[in-house]
């Protein structure tokens, strides 16, 4: 339906126009009524009707002045039909000069108005069709240029062409707004244009159907962009449909920055979509870079320590803090999963060290939730992490109670912690109030290895790690892992690995990194 606005300072005329014609039969609906020219101009700006029927003789701003003001100030003025009680050639001539479409003399009858509506309906529809076709062609051209830029095509010819077509300077300060909402993309483009009006339009549609718009900073300062984005969000918001997400990039300089601006807004869009949130978000408001990784690493470390201390009452808050650190830093789901995988490994290793069954825990979790790489959003990941931590804390607490009086378990734990220091079986026996021979038997029964073999293997494993990951000298590594005598360390290393420490280091340096 096309909208029509009725303007006359005589209420009976408005009433007659409203009731005399079945407007819907001719493809029109009355969108508003005004009793003065000034009121009518405000309503035209707000309602954007396709057709206005207006009286000429009105106070302050008459009908002809209303038409002149609309033609001068509006990018797309409506069609006007003059209603006049004066059969005066001067009025008609002025009306024609103002490009008035029709001129009706009062009193008019139903047939006259209907004939005018039939003519105008055809004319307006043809013009709308032509305008839509031109607008579509312009959009396709602009869209092609911008898509080439945001997908990484980078050459001076393209930048020059884009600058000319989009009427931008090569060093213009720009920002990008990305809008994701349900519904046909054509309708969404139209709504975006309504708020971010530009000549020419700098709008594009990405491969996922999101609509983007490039905004020059001098035409759209930050406060204005935020205000328009909020208005657009409120218009698009629909609780029954998918969330509406409007994301606003930072400001960068030059046509060549368009890709980076789009990626900023897109990164923020994906983060908020994974959180299941909607609204208007600014890239400047989120933390970026290595600080985000460090914060997430710190929060997951705190979570691990809380679980290993069986502090069940703190687990919910710690899980929230860990996942929030990922979200606030806009780390993607894969990065979040890597932190969760480290958490899994640490907890499973601790359960294994305490003679528990970490595989049973993982089977239970995977049966209930799937593996972490199968999660498609942060909500599912958070649920999984919470259950992992609660289950692990419960298992560890039960294992602690079971092992509390198991002296050999504490001996092994002590060796695992202190293998770098000078350890001897007789010293351990004194420490744990046991017979040396009996402790040696229990140690071998529990670990499957004699004490010295177990100790040497722990030391050599640590030495291998230091050889792979550090630039320490072999003598320094020997001392670090508990061998004051470097020659003895080299003998033990070759005995257990089959190669000298220097050869092992050279071999690992030649191997490609994982």
TrEMBL record:
Annotated SUPFAM superfamilies: CheY-like, Homeodomain-like
Subcellular location: Cytoplasm
Pfam families, sorted: HTH_18 (PF12833), Response_reg (PF00072)
Response regulatory domain ranges (all copies): 3-121
KW Ligase (keyword) present: no
Entry keyword annotation includes Nucleotide-binding: no
Domain of life: Bacteria
Matching InterPro entries: CheY-like_superfamily, Homeodomain-like_sf, HptR, HTH_AraC, HTH_AraC-typ_CS, Sig_transdc_resp-reg_receiver
UniProt keywords, alphabetically: Cytoplasm, DNA-binding, Phosphoprotein, Transcription, Transcription regulation, Two-component regulatory system
Residue ranges of domain HTH araC/xylS-type in the record: 409-507
GO function term, MF aspect, one: DNA binding
Name of the protein described by the UniProt record: DNA-binding response regulator
Species the sequence originates in: Paenibacillus ihbetae
Lineage: Bacteria, Bacillati, Bacillota, Bacilli, Bacillales
């Amino acid at each position: 339906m096309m909208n029509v606005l009725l303007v006359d300072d005589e209420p009976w005329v408005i009433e007659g126009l409203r009731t005399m014609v079945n407007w819907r039969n001719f493809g029109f609906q009355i969108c508003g009524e005004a009793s003065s020219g000034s009121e009518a101009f405000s309503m035209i700006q707000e309602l954007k009707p396709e057709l206005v029927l207006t009286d000429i003789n009105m106070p302050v701003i008459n009908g002809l002045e209303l038409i002149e003001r609309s033609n001068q100030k509006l990018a797309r003025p409506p069609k006007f039909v003059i209603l006049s009680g004066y059969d005066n050639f001067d009025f008609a001539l002025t009306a024609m000069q103002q490009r008035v479409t029709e001129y009706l003399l009062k009193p008019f009858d139903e047939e006259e108005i209907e004939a005018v509506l039939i003519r105008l309906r055809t004319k307006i529809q043809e013009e709308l069709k032509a305008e839509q076709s031109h607008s579509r062609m312009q959009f396709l051209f602009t869209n092609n240029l911008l898509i080439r830029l945001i997908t990484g095509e980078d050459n001076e010819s393209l930048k020059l062409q884009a600058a000319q077509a989009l009427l931008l300077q090569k060093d213009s300060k720009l920002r990008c707004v990305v809008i994701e909402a349900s519904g046909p993309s054509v309708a969404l483009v139209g709504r975006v244009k309504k708020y971010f009006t530009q000549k020419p339009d700098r709008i594009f549609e990405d491969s996922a159907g999101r609509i983007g718009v490039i905004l020059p900073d001098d035409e759209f300062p930050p406060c204005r962009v935020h205000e328009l984005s909020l208005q657009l969000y409120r218009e698009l918001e629909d609780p029954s449909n998918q969330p509406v997400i409007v994301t606003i990039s930072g400001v960068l300089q030059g046509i060549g920055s368009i890709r980076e601006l789009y990626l900023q807004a897109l990164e923020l869009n994906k983060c908020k979509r994974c959180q299941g949130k909607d609204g208007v978000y600014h890239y400047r408001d989120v933390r970026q870079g290595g600080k985000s990784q460090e914060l997430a690493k710190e929060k997951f470390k705190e979570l691990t320590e809380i679980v290993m201390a069986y502090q069940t009452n703190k687990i919910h808050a710690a899980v929230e803090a860990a996942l929030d650190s990922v979200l606030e830093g806009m780390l993607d789901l894969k990065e979040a999963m890597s932190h969760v995988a480290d958490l899994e490994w640490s907890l499973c290793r601790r359960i294994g060290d305490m003679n528990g069954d970490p595989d049973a825990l993982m089977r239970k979790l995977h049966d209930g939730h799937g593996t972490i790489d199968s999660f498609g959003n942060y909500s599912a990941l958070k649920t999984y992490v919470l259950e992992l931590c609660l289950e692990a804390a419960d298992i560890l607490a039960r294992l602690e109670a079971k092992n509390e009086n198991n002296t050999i378990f504490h001996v092994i734990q002590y060796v695992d912690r202190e293998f770098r220091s000078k350890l001897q079986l007789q010293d351990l026996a004194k420490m744990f109030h046991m017979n040396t021979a009996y402790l040696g038997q229990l140690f071998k029964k529990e670990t499957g290895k004699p004490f010295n073999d177990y100790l040497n293997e722990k030391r050599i494993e640590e030495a291998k790690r230091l050889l792979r990951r550090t630039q320490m000298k072999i003598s320094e590594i020997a001392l670090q892992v508990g061998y004051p005598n470097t020659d003895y360390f080299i003998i033990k290393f070759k005995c257990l690995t089959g190669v000298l420490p220097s050869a092992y280091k050279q071999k690992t340096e030649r191997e490609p990194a994982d």
